[in-house]
Amino acid sequence: MAVEMLKPSPRGRWEKAAVTSQFWLLFVATMASSVVRDDLGFWGSTALTVVIMGLGSFLLVYKAVPERKERLARDAERGVIECALRYADSHPDSLRGRWLPGFAEIGTGTFKFQPDYIDKGEPEGKITVFSDVGRRAPGPDRAAPEAASRAEEELGDRGPRN
């Protein structure tokens, strides 16, 4: 039986612009500073590039933050959250210690997680279902690594792609 999961709300116009702005904003700022390079000199045009990129980024984020909060609240009402999971028993600075971004659908005692490998706001990859979540906290006599190794087996050897 295939596991279905609710799709998160799509990103809005300003959110998409803020995510992609690092590419086109650098191009716009470089073009604008190259026009006035003769008047301002090298350091003046470089400073102008930094100012244009900073102001452009600030304005885009200023418009995108309320849109993002609204989208996340709408998804939370439906039981879908944007989150990141860390592999169980991962050691600091190891490849297994990285966070895997994605989306989770919360249920009663279970949650379904689907990774978002390429950070485009849409889940891609195999859905992993975790059950008996939150019912028992590991006590001093019960070993937590057993549950962690079970979760690691369910996730397999997937990780964020670089």
How would you characterize the overall build of this protein?
The protein has 162 residues and is of the alpha+beta class. It is built from 3 helices and 4 strands. It has helices at residues 13-35, 37-78, 144-155; strands spanning 80-86, 99-106, 110-115, 128-131. A 4-stranded antiparallel beta sheet has the order 1-2-3-4. The radius of gyration is 22 Å and the shape is elongated. The mean pLDDT is 76.
Structural class by sheet pairing and helices: alpha+beta
Task: Please state the CA-atom Rg, rounded to the nearest Å.
Answer: 22 Å
Question: What gap, in angstroms, lies between the N and C termini?
Answer: 32 Å
- How many strands, which pairing sense, and closed or not: the largest β-sheet? 4 strands, antiparallel
How many helices does DSSP assign? 3
Give the low-pLDDT segments: none
* Helix proportion: 40-55%
List how many beta strands DSSP finds: 4
Would you list the SSEs in sequence order as H and E? HHEEEEH
Q: Strand order of the main beta sheet, please?
A: 1-2-3-4
Give the overall silhouette: elongated
Strand proportion = 15-25%
Q: Mean pLDDT, nearest integer?
A: 76
Q: What's this entry about, in short?
A:
This protein has helices spanning 13-35, 37-78, 144-155; strands at 80-86, 99-106, 110-115, 128-131.
Layout of strands and helices, then pairs:
Layout lengths: L12 H23 L1 H42 L1 E7 L12 E8 L3 E6 L12 E4 L12 H12 L7
Antiparallel strand pairs: 1-2, 2-3, 3-4
Helix pairs in contact: 1-2
